[in-house]
Write a structure and sequence with these properties.
Strand content: under 5%
Helix content: 40-55%
Largest sheet: none
Order of helices and strands: HHHHHHH
Length: about 130
């Protein structure tokens, strides 16, 4: 028996394509954009990750590296827009809020000093306030 052409659809997500896909994800490219650049379906890597634990681990690491690459750490935007709660982003967000124009030069209104109650009870009466 001679070997003829292989049956079925040819593999479009081989080892080379997997490495290219994971490299794109690690640089911060979004999942759909990386799949479009390689000409594969967005579901193909996810389906492979469901069958191949080694690829699933590599995919998770690449996605984490991509998240880190996309977030501008140490800025208020990292905290506000990307929900990053690392210490540099949290510190930047606190400083940006405390330096906002709404809070600069704001008049602080103190409550007036109240008179001590003169009645025998511990509560102020209207005559004590006025």
């Amino acid at each position: 028996m001679t070997a003829g052409p292989a049956r079925g659809r040819p593999c479009t997500f081989d080892e080379h394509a997997q490495d290219a896909y994971l490299a794109l994800l690690a640089t911060g490219t979004r999942i759909g954009d990386a799949a479009d650049k390689l000409g594969i379906s967005r579901r193909t890597p996810t389906q492979l990750a469901g069958r191949d634990r080694a690829f699933a681990a590599r995919l998770a690491n690449a996605k984490q590296a991509g998240r880190t690459a996309r977030i501008p750490h140490g800025t208020a935007g990292g905290y506000t827009n990307h929900a990053c709660r690392c210490r540099p982003c949290t510190t930047a967000a606190v400083h940006s809020r405390s330096n906002s124009p709404d809070r600069k030069g704001a008049d602080i209104h103190h409550l007036p000093d109240t008179q001590q109650p003169t009645a025998t009870t511990k509560f102020l009466t209207l005559a004590d306030v006025g």
